[in-house]
Amino acid sequence: MNVRTVATKPFSDQKPGTSGLRKRVPVFQQPHYLENFVQSIFDSLEGYQGQTLVLGGDGRYYNQQAVQIILKMAAAAGFGRVLVGRTGLLSTPAASCVIRKNQAFGGIVLSASHNPGGPTEDFGIKYNISNGGPAPEKVTEAIYARSQVIDQYQILEANEVDLTKPGEFKLGEMTVEVIDPVTDYAQLMESLFDFDRIHELLTSGGFRACIDAMHAITGPYAHRILEQRLGAPAGTVHNGTPLEDFGGGHPDPNLVYAHDLVDILYGENAPDFGAAFDGDGDRNMILGRKFFVTPSDSLAILAANTRGVPGYKDGLAGIARSMPTSQAANRVAEKLGIECYETPTGWKFFGNLLDAGRATLCGEESFGTGSNHIREKDGLWAVLFWLNILAVRRQSVEEIVTQHWQTYGRNYYSRHDYEGVDTDRANTLVEGLRAQMAALKGKSLGRYTVDYSDDFSYTDPIDGSISQKQGIRIGFTDGSRIVFRLSGTGTQGATLRVYLESYEPDSAKQGLDPQTALAELITIADQVAQIQVHTGMEKPTVIT
Ligand code: G16
Description:
It is a single chain. The protein has 544 residues and is of the alpha/beta class. 33% of the residues lie in helices and 26% in strands. It has a seven-stranded mixed sheet, with helices on both faces. It has a seven-stranded antiparallel sheet with strand order 20-21-24-25-26-19-27. A hairpin with a 2-residue loop joins strand 8 (167-171) and strand 9. 1,6-di-O-phosphono-alpha-D-glucopyranose binds at residues 18-19, 113-114, 278, 282-283, 322, 345-347, 364, 366, 368, 487-489, 497.
């Protein structure tokens, strides 16, 4: 085996964010940049010699080149086997599924999630551990620490390998197995949901769905599962061929970026159900006819509707949500008599709760929902769960959601994003908020009285690890909240996220537009944080 050792120097900017390392493609294309990070991952791990690694990505620009490099580095590092998706493709949930099913040592997933792709857009890389989930902070910190002192990496001298057909071959002493990216995942979905009932719903003629894969990785999964297996008419899945630049779009399933789908669901003769996914297939947006389901409500509704869903028929051990996610799920948990955990933003924080059997369902306001079936959020899973509920209840999406509000009350919710803010100015805003925290308690702001204000800190109930400074919360005595945080997934400047939530138990008052219902909190948020002053922006760039 011909392994080359290459001398290198650290790059100062290889600190993983909320979900792996994300940078513009030209940054990754610098000599040694990708190699340094991959070697830093391997150097931070112990005991992987001879073990299995899973590898794949969302198909964005640079995916193919990166897969070739990583295969040669894995061979040089001494992995025994790499399972790689055909043509280097694997959705994030499928990668998690394959890691777990094959008891792999871990996996490398190439994606920058919902960020655009293309030669000058974003690329990303993240490491997942043997439970199939994103590496916890202690691992990502070790990777970063290593990347700051690295002085060499190893790579096998070999030609490019052909990944277009399933099969096995040797690369140096390592076995490469090219797998179909969909098969294992499709089997797992079939074990969780009532496929007979969903098939009946999708083929009965009275129900129409429209699924937008946004030219990203979910296309092949949605074609195979929804159309070929469950009988949805051909054409149900739109934009189902993954493209390196996502067709020039922004593969972020929200009302702003998934506007083509929104136009269809809000147009004439609209279908009954719509959904969109992000670049790597872990996020989802759920729509009914002329109706948007907020991700926070979606989590609560899935939790309240496990009847008739085979994978969850024994009930839920608990629910977990990220701190900025609305408290709608807490109300369901309370009624079910189970725990609702509040974690920092980042799917990695759910891993321990899932592994310990404390939580069954997890969700985030950022269009992520999932369960203990894998250790990532899962877009198509959420769609199948919704279809299972619709097949059981035979009501419209809107009826299901409004009945949920009548039972539990409505948590009005919205997130306002200010993108591309100068990093120093964003930090000044956050420091300004921190400086006010202690003095806010008991203060009246408009018609609201501050109950607590703090910088969220989380102690993991399983391993006791502490994560501090996870978002500034201002909680009011009536349960309303404003949360401020800086995104950990952007690649240009800073993104300020402002999360707004109020609670309305009276069903006569549950039909407002969230921006109207939250208007006073929006004003308070601006006054307290001086958003316009610090960002120089009059309004958010994205509202979800
Ligand atoms: C990632 C994380 C999520 C998080 C989201 C937004 O999602 O896995 O847990 O909610 O980013 O994070 P931030 O608010 O820091 O930008 P994805 O889909 O981008 O991997």
